[in-house]
Amino acid sequence: MTVDALEQGKTEMSQDLQQLKVEKAKLEERLQELEAKREEQRKRLDELTVEKDKLYSSWSSTRDFQEASRIEMKFTAISRQISSTQEEQKSTDMKIAGIKSSIVSLAKAIRDREMLQRSKWQVEKPGG
User: Fold this and answer.
1) 25/30 Cα distance (integer angstroms)
2) Contact, 112 vs 30, CB < 8 A?
3) Would the CA dihedral through 33, 37, 42, 43 be positive or negative?
4) Helix pair 65-118, 3-61: axis angle to 10 deg
5) Which of 1, 27, 46, 57 has the highest Cβ tally under 10 A?
């Protein structure tokens, strides 16, 4: 290998390293977005649960059949919203887990490339 080939290899590794760092930064940004989304979903679930509990209390204490039917319809709608939000939250949790896994593997690849760049190559001359 010539010195030029070694320099070109180092340049390519440096570009790969930068690409990995950019990709890791994008994933970390996406992770923050998803964690914020998950927090919003958790708050929404808390709000819906409180509302559902209130409706249940008023439904169980009402004596009017029409009022009970109206409350029951609201109760059913909120239950559907809760179910939908829980499914979204599960999906978000799976995405977060996948991104965290990708970040860990990218961090390892970055660390390995940096170690490889720091190491010195010894070139043996033929016959010597």
Assistant:
1) 9
2) no
3) positive
4) 160
5) 27
Which amino acid would we find at residue 13?
Answer: M
Task: Tell me how crowded residue 115 is: count the other CB atoms within 10 A of its CB.
Answer: 9
Q: Which amino acid would we find at residue 94?
A: M
Residues 6+ apart with CB under 8 A from 75: 52, 55, 56, 59
Domain regions of the chain by residue span: 3-113
pLDDT tens string 48-100: 999 999 999 998 888 889 999 999 999 999 999 999 999 999 999 999 999 99
Tell me if 117 sits within 8 A of 20, measured CB to CB.
Answer: no
Conformational region of residue 62, where left means phi above 0, alpha means psi within -120 to 50, and beta covers everything else: beta
